Amino acid sequence: MTDKRRLEDLAIFGGNAAFGEALHVGRPNIGDRGRLLGRINQSLDTKWLTNNGPLVQELEHTISEMMGVRHCIAVCNATVGLEIAAQATGLSGEVIVPSFTFVATAHALLWQGIVPIFCDVDERTHNIDPGQVERLITPRTTGIVGVHLWGRPCDVKGLEEIARKHDLRLLFDAAHAFGCSHEGTMIGNNGDAEVFSFHATKFVNAFEGGAIVTNDGGLADDMRLMRNFGFAGYDKILRIGTNGKMNEVSAAMGLTSLESLDAFVATNHRNYERYEQNLAGVPGIHLAPYASDERCNYQYVILEIDRDMTRLSRDRLQEILWAENVLARRYFYPGCHRMEPYVSSPAQSVLSLPNTEYLALRVLCLPTGMDVNVGEVDRVCDVIRVAVAYGDEINERLDHLVARGTIN
Ligand code: T4K
């Protein structure tokens, strides 16, 4: 175990790395392996591997019950789920989305020829700012996609009001928000539909997977058809569709993951509180808060780094952590509007997204999940504390090493 107290203790200056093995953001939670393998065996025994199999149906039923939502359509991943939801709600032309999100939110639209129009986020909540949405509406706008970033709910009411007023469809990318509530109601009940991700890195995973949830029966029927090429029977195609089906092995993992949901949340919560305690007095380091009166999954531990106070940029702090084998991530740098193909698109050239730019330079995501214990959280925090305590000296030394070409 490494004790980090002085500058020389940091691995970036030759000290021993705090971790022998990499500490990842998004290490999968596995759950009860026996239950998982039992379910996979069941699928092998019955030779029903995919196409709306019994495990997929059970998963859909379980999710609907948990959310208190009428319909759940399990899909192969959230990106395809968003594509299906966008098609089913008739999105076309332009759709307003935040830029501060994983690029899949925007890609799911552009992949279908819908132009994402990037909106700025609220600096405090990191979520799309309804106050900015309205000024982006044009005659070509057909909808809004809100993202509950880090599992913290969007201003749902604000977005609903705008959607109603301008007759727009409203979807939510709820990839981060499984098991979270908003004003006492589970996420999954808002807008026309919401889409969850069960990617391996999500706290509830299905290897790859996702779910579209909605209270609109007509929309649900349509999305079920779309998930399976538009088939309504062996030879009957009712509409255009894709292959968005979840397979039985994924559903087996999803169901097994759900059985451990409470344990996963408890561990995430414990780790979050430990980070909070450890970093409370560190100047310039702010932990993005979760509402104590809502259900939260705590799967993202998000730091905001105020460079004026820490004297260290977010990128320098990340470098220091990586040298210690703590693979902290710059989610979602640099913002979709700064990525191809959006950055080269004339539609985006007039955009000014100051809060997105500001956050994209300040946010750092720290490791948590079942693979991270409190002792490890303490060691990560020790590194951050030393780094901030010696901010100016670290900069001086690193600038010197960069100038000499020793590091980049
Ligand atoms: N909307 C939002 C807001 C999203 O955040 C996402 C996905 C989506 C939509 C789309 O959902 P899906 O279509 O994927 O269902 C990860 C995930 O790949 C991505 O799903 C997720 N968001 C995003 C936030 O994070 P990256 O860029 O971090 O890389 P990745 O997945 O290669 O690895 C992350 C870390 O996890 C690595 O350090 C290694 C570790 N890892 C990863 C995998 C896959 C493991 O230890 N084991 C594994 O099996 O994207």
Short description:
The protein has 408 residues and is of the alpha/beta class. 38% of the residues lie in helices and 14% in strands.
* Strand arrangement, major sheet: 2-10-9-6-5-3-4
CATH topology of the largest domain: Aspartate Aminotransferase, domain 2
So, CATH architecture of the largest domain? 3-Layer(aba) Sandwich
Bound molecules: ligand T4K
Give the low-confidence spans: none
Q: How many domain regions?
A: 2
What is the residue-averaged pLDDT? 96
- Please write the CATH class name of the largest domain: Alpha Beta
- Helix-residue proportion: 25-40%
Outline type: globular
Extended strand count = 14
Cα(first) to Cα(last) distance is 28 Å
Which homologous superfamily in CATH is the superfamily of the largest domain?
A: Type I PLP-dependent aspartate aminotransferase-like (Major domain)
Q: From N to C, what is the helix and strand string?
A: EHHEHEHEHEHEEEEEHHHEEHHEHEHH
Count the helices. How many? 14
Strand count, sense and barrel status of the largest sheet are: 7 strands, mixed
Class inferred from helices and paired strands: alpha/beta
Beta-strand content bin = 5-15%
SSE topology sketch:
Blueprint: E1 23-24, H1 33-46, H2 54-67, E2 71-75, H3 78-88, E3 94-98, H4 104-110, E4 115-119, H5 130-133, E5 141-147, H6 156-166, E6 169-173, E7 181-182, E8 185-186, E9 193-197, E10 210-214, H7 217-227, H8 248-259, H9 261-279, E11 285-287, E12 301-305, H10 307-310, H11 314-323, E13 326-327, H12 354-360, E14 363-366, H13 374-389, H14 391-403
Parallel strand pairs: 1-13, 3-4, 3-5, 5-6, 6-9
Antiparallel strand pairs: 2-10, 7-8, 9-10, 11-12, 12-14
Helix pairs in contact: 1-8, 2-8, 3-4, 3-7, 9-13
The protein binds ligand T4K.
